Amino acid sequence: MDVVTTVAALQRRADAERAAGRRIALVPTMGALHAGHASLVKIARERADMVCVSIFVNPTQFDDPNDLAAYPRTFEADLAVCRDAGVDVVFAPDAREMYPDGAQTTVEVGALAEPLCGASRPGHFRGVATVVTKLLGAAKPHVAVFGEKDYQQLAVIRRLARDLLLDIAIVGAPTLREPDGLALSSRNRRLDPESRRQAVVLVRALDAAEAAVAGGERDRERLLALVREQIAAAPRARIDYAELRDAHSLALAPERLDDPTVLALAVFVDSAPQPVRLIDNRVLHPRTRGGLSS
Amino acid sequence: MDVVTTVAALQRRADAERAAGRRIALVPTMGALHAGHASLVKIARERADMVCVSIFVNPTQFDDPNDLAAYPRTFEADLAVCRDAGVDVVFAPDAREMYPDGAQTTVEVGALAEPLCGASRPGHFRGVATVVTKLLGAAKPHVAVFGEKDYQQLAVIRRLARDLLLDIAIVGAPTLREPDGLALSSRNRRLDPESRRQAVVLVRALDAAEAAVAGGERDRERLLALVREQIAAAPRARIDYAELRDAHSLALAPERLDDPTVLALAVFVDSAPQPVRLIDNRVLHPRTRGGLSS
Q: Which of A71, A110, B99, B111 gets the most CB atoms within 10 Å of its CB?
């Protein structure tokens, strides 16, 4: 496994791989790697001959400096995860390499980036869209893999790749979960034991909503009330947002659900030294489950 | 010469060229081709094995709908120019191909795009940066060639390519001029004979400023007064902007010029049925010419 720190070196490697007729997959990460990332690598490997994992904690996507400072950095452990997962190249640039002196170009996605995390984290998706465009430029992949846990991010990046006419397939990877259902996330390691226990309310709320839809519930507000009730069961949890939105456009769902709808959650869980913000989601299919819709 | 109208077909062609070890050059244009464009093709040819000219009148870079409607469209003549210039592929997409249904991604360059044409044409450079990023994604060139007549545009695109870590060389091509000095431009054909005659004041003003600097003048305001006086010699000309700015950062030049400085002009020339906006520029070198600077 090679560790590359400069854009120029990564591009030379990409050119060589492509010249040899080999397909390249990129798995962009912010490090603090876990089994979820390893599963992205596995999916990348199925679709390419060379798998590159980028590790870069992108400052421009953090609206909260405390969150940036607290973001876990575990580079040596990350390299071990990559080695175990069979990664070919780790791209680990510094900020100067990704944002050259005088950098002033931004990439922005419109309506898809406005609600949810776009509303509660101003500038977040501009930072994501900009750094992902850069990473795609640096790694020149045929395919890039992103986790479905970050549902809106995946939608934004799919849109970006299509809109900018990038000849790169964007692949979503299913969310991996702990035995109790908690979605794997680098932020989970910041939960103290009691907060970790209570964090399970996110997936409990998703399960409850899915079960309700399967049981015939189509009313948006009743479903959201059910979600809020589930979250309220955890005294340390405070909802940032809990919304039902069209699974494709992310427009607000109608009062009576019909099309595929994403239930998107962001929840702060109190934990020392500071609250941890967790997200999760589930796509609900009102037409194909439950049997009660017309 | 092949004419390609879809992004997918152009990308397949680019992949085949690259797989064969051939270098690709892109010359992005809005059609209405003239000898200036042919000179860009010549420069492209020197740097690549395959030259692609794109012809696309990009609606998102026009702040003025009248200007968009009046922009000359001469597709058959353009193909003849391309054929004569030895172009390999003409990429002529429609707007739907460049802006797929639901497109909502924009690329924006910061400080470099704010003054001059950025100030007088709101949104112009967002449109330029976005469409150029798309064209680079579609054509996958090793090199792209842009005219120096659009000085700020060239600076914006150089910055964009560096910032987005695109492995694409951006090459500037010298401005071609008519025998009387008028810079070649697709807009010139919209000048009636008297306006065409008066349009020469732009280059006269540039010449006068350059001569003054060569003669030792370093005072910003006196140089600009000289420029305004030259333009005023043409009754049909009205200055949109006439500015002296740092040749690299495009920051306002200091009161006493020292570093390389671009004199950038945009002038409306009255002509039936509507005024024609012309731009031109000259880089002044206060330190290396004139001999009077310290």
A: B99
